[in-house]
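hey m, so remember when u said the tokens were messed up on ur end? i reran from scratch. heres the input so u can diff it against urs
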Amino acid sequence: MYHERERWRREEAYIRRTRIVFSGHFRERMRTRGITLQEIARVIETGEIIQGHAPWTYGNNPNPVRVVMGHGEGDRVLHVVVALRKDAVVLVTVYEPDPEIWEDDLKTLKLRGKKE
């Protein structure tokens, strides 16, 4: 039986112990969104995977992609998108989740077309 949560726990440990590579896009998003390296480190060390995408389903990325949710400074919630390579974890992008797109838990995407 497939247990997604168990797999994600193993992947969270992998993310924490594997070499990190910053993509150019990631660096640009950090800069324009005012997100610090300390906040990224905190999310990587304490965050949890909330979404997973199979290889080739997230743009043209041939690796599995995960969205890691954690806290930056204070109560600032961040989503860090990572690609899981065999030799490294590539940081793809980072953002503060938009409450128009995410449910109140900031982990669950709102259903499109959902009436409030």
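this time it looks ok to me. Residues 21 and 90 are 5 Å apart (CA to CA). if urs says something different then somethings off w ur setup not the seq
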